[in-house]
Amino acid sequence: MFEYDFMRTAFLAGGVVAVAAGAVGFFLVLRNLTFAGHALSHVGFAGATGSVLIGVGALWGLLAFTVAAAVAMGLIGDRLRQRDIAVGIVLSLALGLGVLFLALYTAGAGEATAILFGNLLAIAPGTFWSLVALSAATLLALGVISRPLLFATLEPELAEAKGVSLRLVSVLFLAIVAVAVAEAAQVVGVLLVFALMVGPPAAAQRLVSRLGAGLALAVGLAIIETWGGIALAYATDWPTTFWIVLLSCLVYFASIFKPAIARSTTSHG
Amino acid sequence: MDALAARGNRSRAYPLAGNAIEFDRVTLARGGRVVLDGVSAAIRAGEFIGVFGPNGSGKSTLLRAILGLLPPLSGAIRVFGDPPARGSRSAGYLPQQRAALVDLPICGWDFVASAWRGDRWGLPLVSRRGREEVARAIARVEAQTLVQRPLSQLSGGELQRLLLAQALLGEPRLLLLDEPLISLDPHFQQAVISLVRDIQLAGEITVLFTAHDPNPLLGVMDRVLYLGNRRAAIGMVDDVITDQVLSRLYAMPIEVLRINDRIVVVAGHGPVEAEAHRHDV
Q: DSSP letter at B46?
């Protein structure tokens, strides 16, 4: 299957996005922000359809909307009890706007399907290089904030006392999440970003408790699920997204049952 | 001695030199409500202070003010002679245990180590010196056997020891411990108290230790700081935990009974510690 250009591009693009999605997702799951990630991808839908409407690449509209929404969310802060409700209502509005933009853009339902469910086999060379640059930027930014981010995630009150600005860390992290969401949406679509950003890290955190190992496993699983999905799609001619989501789901549920066995044999210490 | 040092009617109770913490007519508010009003008190370097008071009397708020997280509405706080500074390395802090920690899938070692210079930018890598310091802190709380397990598998007491290890990172001169005895069984309460006492004596560290019940701390406290009714009283146990002082702090008639070297604080309807074990402001 590697004799085709589009297959090679799909594997490379999928791998590049999986690394960023797995790494960012690891912290997203650790911070209990998975709903925020989900919401950001839906907000991105409005951006993607809107930019298609005005003739700009969907990735850029996606990026603009997710980053703006992420910064707003970070500024609201996560202590606000009503936040999830506010976010949910805004994401409904975003989806509604997306529907409006699609109705105004009469040319294609194909475009909408690609935004909603991804189309890894049709990634243009220009988009590929954008994804490489965005992944690199995401990982670099995550590297810079990961230390205070981890401290603020595990021990917010102590971190605050030691001089970490919880608000700043939260805003920066959500902005990074927004970029990763926009990338992941290219692979699995805005509706199924969860499969790539939440599935692999959640499984990894159930399997290992060391930070470094968990992060590496989250990234590894994201890559394996993405590549496995592409290969299965090639073999079956079913959509890539379906296979990636299925693999993500299977790995996650396998991880739920595994520790139950391990715990019953080792917890007597 | 007049134990009730409140309401700004006198300026400095103790000389400047040798004080770890000074409150000079300090007013603190939390969420728009004044919890301490014009409180003056001084804590000498190396003292072990038990901090008590009813729920909402401002114990946690006081610690947050000392950490520089909450500026006073009026008055001045000095920590080792300087205004409180957020991020100061001289203070170790054990926040009230939060429910969020209980299901974390991260192992104990990584949890403690996340606090080692966690305020710096960059990757969360811990240098060799950092690893030694983390290992030393873990050894001081005797948690070596716990740290390979994820926090989700630890009991409340085990988690409390890891929080104490975090507070000890960076060799602080001042330890602010917010309800470290909550969720511990009596045997382990004693273990934590003697641990803190040993650490305090070995390093001449100043300790502020908040709790609901003074009894477990009777043998180790140098003095008590009792908060209530927006005021504070500081002094020896026998001078502060009295009918007269506590009645003023609780703003109702209080009787202090001594039974076999234990103190029982009784309000109209029964022992007041019975109201305890809710989280405080």
A: T
Number of domains present in the structure of chain A: 1
**pLDDT score of B274 more than 50:** no
Judged by a CB distance cut-off of 8 A, whether residue B153 touches chain A is yes
Interface predicted TM-score (ipTM) of this complex, two decimals: 0.87
| Per-residue model confidence as pLDDT tens digits over A138-164 | 999 999 999 999 999 999 999 999 999
> DSSP of B95-131, one letter per residue?
PPP-GGGTT--SBHHHHHHTTTTTTSSS-----HHHH
Domain holding A225: CATH number?
Answer: 1.10.3470.10
Average pLDDT, chain B: 85
Inter-chain touch A209–B105, beta carbons under 8 Å: yes
Domain ranges of chain B: 1-90+173-240, 99-171
How far apart (Å, rounded) are the C-alpha atoms in residues B217 and B232? 19
Query: Could you write out the DSSP letters of every residue in A157-196?
Result: HHHHHTT--HHHHHHHHHHHHHHHHHHHHHHH-GGGHHHH
Is the pLDDT confidence value at B5 over 60? no
* CB distance A244 to A199 below 8 Å: no
Mutate to test the interface with B, among A26, A79, A158 (most CBs of B within 10 A): A158
Superfamily of domain B1-90+173-240: P-loop containing nucleotide triphosphate hydrolases (3.40.50.300)
What gap in Å lies between CA B117 and CA B111, rounded to an integer? 13
